[in-house]
């Protein structure tokens, strides 16, 4: 009996170790000169799903941060979001967001464009960007 429990615990440990975990707090950022001061998740989702052009979304390449943002803010997974953008691009209604490989690159792109909106880890925030939403 102890061997079976030990094997089950070992299997559970291996499974948990393989599961991606993202523990950092995510924030939505804009350029400090942007007049926006606060935003709800539902509002932010509009930009990252191509439903509003008031802000230009700046994306991360695939990864844990992106997946967590999609899940918590967009209530979608990356496959669903890619399908939405593919349709918008194909029909000529929008251009796909530019993608960057790190929060530092997203922050730099947002800092350089007053209409840009992006998301990064809260720990990466500095005075080059303004936080308008903390993702819960």
TrEMBL record:
<feature type="signal peptide">
    <location>
        <begin position="1"/>
        <end position="23"/>
    </location>
</feature>
<protein>
    <recommendedName>
        <fullName>Phosphate ABC transporter substrate-binding protein</fullName>
    </recommendedName>
</protein>
<keyword id="KW-0732">Signal</keyword>
